[in-house]
Amino acid sequence: MKILNKHRGSAIVRIGLCLAVYLSWSRVANAELELLNKDGWTFTFDGRVNAFLSAGAGDNIPLAPMGAPYTVMGSQSSGPGNGRADVGWPENYGQRDSDNNYLAIRVRSGMYPNILGFGVTRKVGEDTTIRGYISIWSTVESLGYDKWAPINAEAREGYFNVNGSWGTVTIGRTLALLGRMSYEIDTLYGHGFGVGLPCTDALGPACGHIGTGVLFPGYGANVAYTTPSAGGLRLHVGVFDPVVFSTAMNDWSHASVVRPEGALSFDRPIGMTGRIKFEVEGLYQPVSRIEMDATGTGSRRVTTAIWGAAGGVRIEAGPIRLGVSGFRGKGLGLFYALQRSSATEDNSPTHELRTFTGGYGQVALVFGKLQLSGGFGMSLVDQTAFDKIDGSVSVIRYQRGISGALYYYATDSIVLGLDFFNFAAGWWGAPMVDPATMAVTGKYAGETQLLNFVNAGMTYHW
Amino acid sequence: MTTLSSVKRRGVVCGLTLGALLLLGARPASADLTLLEHDGWTFFTDGRINSFLSLGRGDDFPNPTPNNTPGSAIDPNTGMQLPNPNHGLIGSGGQYFTAGFPNDQGYGGKYLGTRVRSGFLGSIIAFGMKRQVTDSTSIKSYVSLWGTSEAYARDRTGDAGAATSKGFDVREGWIAVDGPWGSFLGGRQSGILGSLSTEIDFLYGHNFGVGLPCLEIYYPTCGHIGTGALGPGFAAGFTYTTPSLGGLRVKAGLYDPVRLLGAWERVPYPRPEGAIWFEQRVSPSVWFKVQAEGMYQYMGQISNMEVGRPDNLHSSDRVWGVAGGARLEAGWFRLGLSAFRGKGLGTYVALQNASSTFNSATRNFRYFTGYYAQTAAVFGNEQVSAGIGRVQDDLLPEDRTDIGTSNLKYQTGISGAFYHRLTSNLVLGFDYFMFRTDWWGAPSSISVLDANGQPVSQVVAGFLPGEKQVVHLFNLGATFYW
Known about the structure:
The structure holds 2 protein chains of 2 kinds.
Chain A: H1 3-9, H2 17-25, E1 33-38, E2 41-59, E3 71-72, E4 101-108, E5 114-123, E6 129-138, E7 154-164, E8 167-175, H3 180-191, E9 219-226, E10 233-240, E11 259-270, E12 274-292, E13 298-317, E14 320-330, E15 355-367, E16 370-381, E17 393-394, E18 396-409, E19 414-427, E20 431-433, E21 440-443, E22 448-461
Parallel strand pairs in A: 3-17
Antiparallel strand pairs in A: 1-2, 2-4, 2-5, 2-22, 5-6, 6-7, 7-8, 8-9, 9-10, 10-11, 11-12, 12-13, 13-14, 14-15, 15-16, 16-18, 18-19, 19-22, 20-21
Chain B: H1 2-9, H2 18-23, E1 33-38, E2 41-59, E3 88-89, E4 106-107, E5 110-117, E6 123-132, E7 138-147, E8 169-179, E9 182-190, H3 195-206, E10 234-241, E11 248-255, E12 271-283, E13 286-302, E14 314-330, E15 333-343, E16 367-379, E17 382-393, E18 405-406, E19 408-421, E20 426-439, E21 443-449, E22 455-463, E23 468-481
Parallel strand pairs in B: 3-18
Antiparallel strand pairs in B: 1-2, 2-5, 2-6, 2-23, 4-5, 6-7, 7-8, 8-9, 9-10, 10-11, 11-12, 12-13, 13-14, 14-15, 15-16, 16-17, 17-19, 19-20, 20-23, 21-22
């Protein structure tokens, strides 16, 4: 599966001129291998296999001093040990030394892991085709350094679309819309053939710049429509399977209606060697919870809304590629849109959702078979009013990433990659609360974490 | 419970090492099925589907030997002799890959179970892409998906939506670059230590059979693995294999490290593994191969998980293993011999996370030794096979004074099989496996009175009689492969 297929799955890019342009300019894009073309049916296959030697060294996630009345957000989460990114970058259980430093060398999958994708297309009218596509993803490393944990394949995509001169309707599981531009920039100019930041120490695939300025849209079940291109301008709208943040009645565990997401994109070539694409994206999802009375009985329904807005632009001119993106929203999460994590909501009885902001810039230079990339991104978390008086936790403040990469396209299907990623995270510092009066008397110093990763490996794709 | 639950999930041991066999080109009578050749690309598939009717009967998981050691003190309050201390068995409580044959079908000290299950290798569907990039260099990728025919724990409701649900286990996913300079392979692939013993079991023993079910409740089976053969398992890694120098080849690899959950968890460095082998055809009908293998991994642990504690100590140790063996094919006759020894290895697979691998209190690693012999006679479409193997788990000094535990001593397997090849892709198989487990027996102990007149346990010379479990397994089924 390539970024191209993600686009198809998201009903963005149709086969045609755009594809040709895309292929000619994008190192990450690939043609599918046609296995069969018979009686109007076309059966295609695409995919990739890769592995990277990945070394990480630096600080483990900061821990509160012994006897401190607070914890550092993320330091007690079980998510990272189970392969789910949360807050900061915790070691997999046992991988730090007695000074809380982290050092580990793994063999792991890249930002895209091993993928097998199968497509079936049939022409049903003069200008109408139906296409089904399923992709199976898996990593090379096992969960949590556990040699015997099975590698469970994930059917990350499974959809069909109907494509005609009137546009494209897509039904099934595809990449969502919010954050898609930032993810596309990271894939094309940053880490499509690299690793970047491993999402967790326990399990991949890796994150590239996701979590540090890039917002991963995630995959979800949806029904979506994309208009035909009007001079490069397209509108994408879809309704997605809703997401909840808890299973507890008194938390955000009710999502009664589907989630609308949308995007407006403009994509066109400039001259013979240039291209510009920009996109704005948005989502909105109501969620509710049951407020309990003093007896623990549900008394009334409280509703709020998760929302997000994002956008970005990427420009290609000769050997230069440049991409810039940003996002802001309530209840979004640090790594991917609508992420259930320690950072999503505060500890107040009303479970207030936090607001997240991210910015990301990525540049690449392509000289023949060589590509040099550099990127910078940062995601920020706003404190809620309750966070400022909650002496029990130091809330995450930011996650920052600085990256560099060198890729060598040995053949049209083999890419060697060497990349570096500097990850930093900072916390707000827990408020000091007088236990007698419950008044805030000050603030502990904010914690910080700094880690460096170096990744070298190879990708074979078709 | 961390160890147990994690072990329960694992797609383990199993038939193991299809990868190694494929890499070594040892998969018999099977070729990749080319689906497409186009513009220099070759897309191919291979795989297999099988099922076996599997009957097992014998001893249930044993109870601890009663402690009848004479010499316990008289309780001054009752005038009766104090009861002797009790002990438990390693592997009891349903711990898998630890010792013996735990199951939930026992009754009255006996086990009887019949299942329809997958064989030594599960059901497999694999896809590969090949491309010739120069006259002498090719690139190949390979992804294999494994599944089983049986449900987890005879529970169909667990087929979906649970951690034990049926799903594909992506055992292999690698890229290989081959040229006259050798072969470089990166991705999820077979380990190296134990690969020859598993190759022998696969080729001459249980390719189309069952042998010992690794677990009664689930998973592809083990053949002779766990009774003298050592499974190399699968892991992410990079390996390089030299070209053949008159039959001599060397393979070296760096693998993603493995931690032993709940004990040795700090594994910052990749694990080197390597093998050297020599193979030669000395006449049109006589061929032999000898191979030696090795593995080494740093392991660390921290005594406490809180920063700033003065008693926060870091300790380290090493897991290592060596193995070797030989295969001989002369006309219709096949013979394979192998052995291994190492520290912290485990009984079934190298670097196995089980309570028999290390002492749970001191976390010191135990030493394991295994021997395995397998023979086969091939006459046209018929093959008759027989094998015998044993793995021994040595006692640590502290095990000799741990009166609360009877540790694993041996796991022994004796097997016989008959295979009939109906077509070039369909094989019927019937096999028998005798699985015997011996425990060392807990150190003998009595109860005495301390200076305050309170009863305490005291170790005395000798061991209680070791516990024993014998299970006989009969397996009948068919394998379709391509």
